[in-house]
Design brief:
It is built from 9 helices and no strands. It is an all-alpha fold. Helix 4 packs antiparallel against helix 5 and helix 6 packs across helix 7.
Length: 191
């Protein structure tokens, strides 16, 4: 009994959902860097105090939104069907991981750009999870220096790199996935 976390009040849960829905819509329409906390509060129909009590800044909101989407990929990595989930060769799993991440970024790069830029990218819990996963694949494949290779293998998934390729250069998601598959197969082997 005493170890259970406190339950969220129904009104607080509704406000959280309204805030996240409004922020996701605004971030998608304008980009996270062009949305203010006041914009979010207005769009959600909540007071500034309600907003700031739960989220100290725009980045905290972007983290909450992105976390939901990243957890879905994490669950598939841990227990989904191969090749994304366990049971496939390391190179094939890395290729599937790249594909899943391109899909995630294609839908939510506006959130990732609000959270995972510069050094802050390396401090997110998701990056730690992705890093552990890719490092384990490098080790399982008896690949080159796992500690040096892991961040290099994750670098193409940086939100600013993806945004540059997708928006500035106009590359399709399929082309990016194909290039990443070549990288995965070159480093870890695979199909």
């Amino acid at each position: 009994m005493g170890d259970d976390p406190p339950r969220e009040r129904a009104d607080a849960a509704r406000n959280r959902e309204k805030i996240l829905a409004a922020a996701e819509r605004l971030y998608a329409e304008r980009g996270a860097d062009r949305v203010t906390m006041d914009d979010i509060a207005r769009a959600a129909g909540v007071g500034r105090g309600t907003l700031y009590r739960r989220y100290p800044d725009r980045a905290a909101i972007a983290v909450a939104l992105l976390d939901t989407h990243e957890r879905a990929v994490q669950e598939l990595l841990l227990g989904g069907p191969p090749p994304l989930g366990p049971g496939a060769a390391p190179g094939d799993r890395l290729c599937a991981f790249y594909g899943a991440m391109v899909d995630l970024l294609d839908r939510h790069v506006h959130l990732a750009l609000g959270v995972e830029v510069g050094r802050s990218r390396f401090q997110t819990g998701a990056y730690g999870f992705w890093r552990a996963h890719v490092r384990a694949l490098v080790v399982a494949a008896d690949g080159p220096d796992p500690d040096a290779a892991v961040d290099l293998l994750l670098a193409p998934l940086a939100p600013d790199v993806f945004h540059h390729q997708r928006v500035v250069l106009g590359l399709g998601a399929d082309r990016i996935k194909a290039a990443l598959a070549v990288l995965a197969n070159a480093v870890l082997g695979g199909a």
